[in-house]
Write a structure and sequence with these properties.
148 residues, alpha/beta, 6 strands, 41% helix, 21% strand
């Protein structure tokens, strides 16, 4: 299995970016398993997406600490994906769980840095830039996933 970790500090939009990625994959022909409607908001979630090529992709949108990553590992183990995409911090417990996992057979680990904006922007500009950064990161991740 290939693992992609979208890493960054707290509150930089990792969860929102991964939710945007799920929507982007679905918009471009992938299937959500199970195929039940899901209201995409700013909530965490674990998703299994099947690409048109048949590859199975698990996306776990939360991963800021070791306990959350342990739960993510159990979800991923049950889904048997080809690719796992998760959020993590830049160091600490969430990264350690991925590195030391004996549950999964990891063939390749890819670290994708989260882009974010300077918080000194005024409110409306900051919100637009936040959305632009998340959208750009989601697009970059989609290209990466489809290339694997």
């Amino acid at each position: 299995m290939k693992v992609i970790s979208l890493f960054g500090s707290a509150d930089t939009g990792k969860t929102r970016t991964l939710l945007d990625l799920v929507q982007l994959l679905l918009k471009n022909g992938s299937l959500l398993i199970p195929p039940e409607p899901f209201v995409f908001g700013d909530c965490d979630g674990n998703f299994l997406v099947v690409l048109a090529t048949g590859k199975r992709v698990c996306i776990t949108t939360s991963g800021d600490n070791a306990a959350i990553q342990e739960a993510n590992l159990r979800f991923v183990e049950n889904q048997k994906p080809d690719i796992w995409i998760t959020a993590s911090r830049t160091r600490g417990g969430s990264c350690g769980v991925i590195f030391t996992s004996t549950i999964l057979s990891i063939d390749e680990m890819i670290w994708a840095g989260k882009t974010y904006i300077d918080s000194s922007f005024p409110g409306s500009i900051a919100e637009l830039e936040y959305k632009r950064c998340n959208n750009s990161d989601a697009n970059r991740l989609e290209v990466l996933v489809r290339s694997l």
